[in-house]
Write a structure and sequence with these properties.
99 residues, five-stranded mixed sheet, 18% helix, elongated, single chain, TolA/TonB C-terminal domain, alpha+beta
Length: 99
């Protein structure tokens, strides 16, 4: 689970909890990180996920898509009436070379 080290922006500032079990690390043939802008709806689903090239250290399209799919498919936040229609933040996915 997240300790808000991997999640930033308004979502982290508002302490919106992650309710899914997600690893913020994937394996690849290069090491580095991808940073994404995300939008989360009131139901807690990620509805938008766009890579921030200036903050990412990798340029691999396959690894970027793997990271993006991980976020869209697996990252879920708590539902709550106090959250905006679209809650914005960032997510960092680390890419490691398997041993």
């Amino acid at each position: 689970m997240c300790t808000f080290a991997q999640v930033g922006g308004e979502i982290a500032a508002d302490q919106r909890k992650i309710i899914s079990n997600i690893e913020f690390t994937i394996s690849g043939n290069q090491s580095g990180k991808f940073v994404f802008d995300i939008a989360v709806n009131k139901q807690g689903a990620v509805t938008s996920c766009v890579v921030i090239k200036a903050e990412s250290t990798l340029v691999s399209t396959p690894l970027m898509m793997k990271s993006k799919n991980l976020i869209i498919s697996n990252l879920k936040f708590e539902i709550g009436p106090g959250f905006p229609d679209f809650h914005y933040g960032t997510v960092t996915i680390s890419v490691v070379i398997p041993m």
